[in-house]
Predict the structure.
Amino acid sequence: MQQSNSSKPRRWPAMRALARAWPMLLAFAAPGACAQDTSAQAKLDQDPPTPTPTMDWLHQPGMTGDWGGARTQLTREGVDIFSSYQVQTADIVHGGVKRGTETNNQILLGANFDMHKLVGIDNGIFTFAVSDRYGANASTLAGVRVTIDSNYGEGENFRLANMSFRQNFYQGRLSYQLGWFPAAAEFDYTAILCSFLNQGFCGHPNSLAADTSGFQNPPGAQLGARVTGFITKDVYLKVGVFDVNPTRFTDEKQGFRLSREGRTGEIYLSELGWNASLGEQGLVGHYKIGAYYDTSEAPDVVNPKIMHTGRDSGWLAVDQMVYGIGPDARRGLVLFLNLTQANASSSIIESYNSAGFVFQGPFASRPDDVLSLGWAKSNLNHRKLEAQIERRPSFGYIGAERYIDLSYKIQLTPWMFITPDVQYLIHPGVFSAAKYPNATVIGGAIAFKF
C-alpha cells in the first residue's frame, strides 16, 4: 500500500469536527434502517434506490433527496449518480510508538451510465468516478505494517477512481470490463469484510497489495481488463491484466494521468471461485482460490542490490453463512478465512492469515446493523527475519504482527451509518526491526451517502 506525506494540508474543518463527535451520535441509533455498503467499489457497482415523493428525510435513500424529481428522471434515462463521504478516526490509547489520534477522509463522486438506455448497447454500463482522500496514517503511531484505518492510502489526493466499461452476455454467464479501475476490487474481494476498519480485513488480506504496486485497492484506478466466465451457474473463472505504475499513486500530481509513462510491468491475475447456496435457506458462501504474477523487477528482501524479475502471490478465501435468520437468511452469522502466500525473494509480507465472523443483523430490532470480529497474522519474510537475527541475535526478533478488530456498524438511516471500533495490535514493530508495546486502538467511522 502506498503512503503519502501526512503533512498535506487538511480540508473541510466541519467534517473533521463531525469526525471527533461521532461517539455522541450513538444516542440517535434507531431500529429499522436500511443497510448500505459504502465501500468504494460497491458504490461503483450498485445502482441507487429510486426515491419516492412520500419518503421523509430520515428514510429516503440519499441525504440530499430526489432534487425535485431530477434524480429519478436521470435514473429513468440511464444516469445513476452516486456520492458519499466517510471519515475514520483512530486513537492509540495504549502502547505502540506513542499515543495519539489520527483521522482520514474519503469523498467519492461518480455515475453509472446505462448504455442500453442511452445508446442502445445491450447490458453495457459505463462508470466514471473521482475520489479524494486526505488525512494521516494512524499506523505510524501504532508502529504496525498494516493500515489500521482502511480509507488511508492509494495516493491521498484528488484522483480518478473509475473510468471503465463493462458488459455481460448469455444471461451473465460471460462478462468483461476494461478501462481504468482497481484490480483489487475484482480479485479476492469480499465486500462484507469492509464492516471492519482495519485494512488487513477490509476487502481482502493486506499482503496482496503490500507486496506489489499492481494490486491497487479502490479508489486506485489503473489501466486494465478483466474477463469472467461461469463454467456452471455457480462456478466461475476470472482472469485479468493490469498496468503496474507506482508513480501514479506516489505522486500527488498524477491522479488523472492516463498514459503508461512510469510503468514497471504488468500484473496477471486469475481466480477460480464457487458462489455457494446451501440448504433450504440458501445460505450464501463464496470460495476462491487465485494468484497473481507481476512482471516488474523488485529488490531482494535481504540484499537490495540484487534485483529479481517477477513477483507472485496466491490466495485462498472463504466466507460462508452458517446460521441464517428467516426464510431468506438476509440476517445471519458468516464465518470467514483468508490465507495468502508470496514469493520469498522480494515479498515483505510472505504470508498472511485471517479469520473471524460477520453477524449481519444480530438483533431483530436492528436488522441492518453488522457485528464483526476478526483475527489476523502478518508474517515477515522468513529470510528477512533470519538476517536480522544473525546480525543481532540478542535482540529477540519476532516474526509476525497480529491484529484483533471488533466493530459494530450501526445503520442510522439508509444514507448514514456509524461504526465504533476497537483494535488490539500485538507485537508492533516487526516490520521495522523494532519492539513496541502491544497497542490498544479505539476509533470509528461515520459515512454519508448523498
